[in-house]
Amino acid sequence: MMRFYVAPRHRARWANRMHDTSRAEIHVPVDVVADGEGYTITAYVPGVKAEDVEIEILENVVSIRGEFEGMEDENGETRYLLRERPTGRFGRTLRLPAAVDADSAEAKVSDGVLTLSVAKAEHEKAKKIAVKMS
After folding, report:
1. At 38, is the secondary structure helix, strand, or coil?
2. Which domains, from first to last, does the chain contain?
3. Contact in structure between 119 and 40 (CB atoms under 8 Å)
4. Fewest C-beta in 10 Å: which of 70, 93, 118, 129?
5. How distant, in Å, are the alpha carbons of 38, 40, 78, 114, 130 from that of 106?
6. What is the pLDDT along the chain (134 residues), one digit of tens a residue?
């Protein structure tokens, strides 16, 4: 059993940080696969519609943002017995090893998984040089 001790003088500050959901985004798990032409990024976004996902690409930085919506009734008086599904803003920023071409990016959401495919920028791709015999 693991115990966690918080000094009494720090207890109120610690409790506020633990319950303040407005300041931190939910961390979504991602996989990044690289091949010779570019990258494929997959992220778990269950229950999120494709139009509710925001993706920004700048050079070699990819940002994915959105929001997990909770189930609330019309009066806002839902009483949960157990609540484990995430609600609120989520975000993930990834720095890739090479610059990418934002114009070639394609994204889709299927069965709660976001798949983003993006090609490396032309100046980042390896080029083969033919050697001539003299």
Report:
1. strand
2. 42-71+85-123 (2.60.40.790)
3. no
4. 129
5. 12, 10, 38, 11, 33
6. 445 554 565 555 555 554 444 557 888 999 999 988 899 999 999 989 999 999 999 989 999 999 988 776 667 677 778 888 888 899 999 999 999 999 989 999 999 999 999 999 877 666 677 788 87
As given in the structure block, the two tokens for residue 27 are: 């961390």
**87, 69 Cβ separation under 8 angstroms:** yes
Task: Write down the number of H helices and E strands in the chain.
Answer: 1, 7
- Model-level pTM? 0.70
Angstrom distance (rounded) from CA 6 to CA 15: 10
* Distance, CA of 73 to CA of 68 (rounded, Å): 16
Beta bridge partner(s), residue 30: 43
